[in-house]
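Put briefly, the fold is written as integer tokens. The lines below illustrate.
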Amino acid sequence: MKRMQWGGKRGLGLGMCFLLLLVAAGHVSLSYYRNGLAQYKAEVMRAHRSLAGEVDQLHIELASLSRPERLRKLAKTKLGMAPPSPLQVLRP
């Protein structure tokens, strides 16, 4: 009696086709995922550049607002402050 082989050559061919189909589907899936990540990275980089520009502007504004001449003028005009007189300074 002749023994039956599992699928024979036909089964091997179908198995290889199925494996090739799985590899192709995986490749397409990974390409789609990679493209999505590339788009997300581009959006994040664009937002980063925008925020970096805002940070630079805020640093400039902070430097302008904290100038000693400006602070002295505001202390004198708005708060009525003045440098201390010699009698107000305590020395040990």
Observations:
- The two ends are 118 Å apart (CA to CA).
- The chain has a mean pLDDT of 90.
- Helices lie at 8-65, 68-77.
